[in-house]
Design brief:
This protein has 154 residues and is mainly alpha-helical. The chain has one domain: Ferritin. The protein has 7 helices and no strands. The chain starts with a helix and ends with a helix. It comes from Pseudotamlana agarivorans. This is PA2169 family four-helix-bundle protein.
C-alpha cells in the first residue's frame, strides 16, 4: 500500500506540473507576436490540458484523488522556473530567449516523466500513458530545436 501511495503522490505531482505548464503556454501565447509561436503555444496548452485529464483518469483508477496538498510543495521547482519565464516575458526579451526557456521547461518535464517511469510497480496503463505524454513533449522540444514550430503545431 505504501508503494501505491507513492505512485499516487508522484502522479499528482506530474498532474500539477502539466497544469502549470498549460498555464505558462497560455500566458506565452498572449505575449508573443509571431503567429507561428502563438499557434505552437496554443496547441501545446491544449495538449497539456489533455494530459491533465488523462492523468486524472489514471489517478482515479488507482483509487486516488487529486486534492493532495502534499503535492503542492513538490511543485516548487516548477514555480521557480515559471517566475524565470515570466521575467523573460515581462522584460520583453526576444522570442529566441523565450523559446530557450520553453525548451528548458520541456526538459524539466521530460525529466519528471522519466523519474516516474523508473518507479517499480507502475501499472501498465500508467506506463503507456507516461511514455506517450513524454514522447509528445520530446517531439515539441525537438521541433523547437529544429525551428519547425509551425509544422509541429499542426
Amino acid at each position: 500500500m505504501k508503494k501505491q501511495k507513492r505512485i499516487l503522490l508522484n502522479l499528482n505531482a506530474l498532474l500539477i506540473v502539466n497544469q502549470e505548464v498549460e498555464r505558462i503556454y497560455l500566458e506565452l501565447e498572449g505575449k508573443v507576436l509571431d503567429e507561428d509561436l502563438k499557434y505552437f503555444f496554443k496547441a501545446n496548452s491544449v495538449k497539456r490540458k489533455e494530459f491533465v485529464e488523462a492523468l486524472k483518469v489514471e489517478i482515479l483508477k488507482l483509487g486516488g484523488s487529486f486534492d493532495n496538498e502534499e503535492v503542492q510543495a513538490s511543485s516548487s521547482e516548477l514555480s521557480k522556473f515559471w517566475m524565470k519565464v515570466r521575467n523573460v516575458v515581462l522584460l520583453n526579451d526576444s522570442e529566441e530567449k523565450i523559446i530557450k526557456e520553453v525548451s528548458e521547461m520541456q526538459s524539466l518535464a521530460i525529466n519528471r516523466y522519466n523519474e516516474l517511469l523508473r518507479m517499480l510497480g507502475l501499472p501498465l496503463s500508467v506506463c503507456k500513458l507516461l511514455i506517450k505524454q513524454r514522447d509528445i513533449i520530446q517531439d515539441a522540444k525537438d521541433a523547437i530545436v529544429r525551428e519547425e514550430i509551425y509544422a509541429f503545431a499542426q
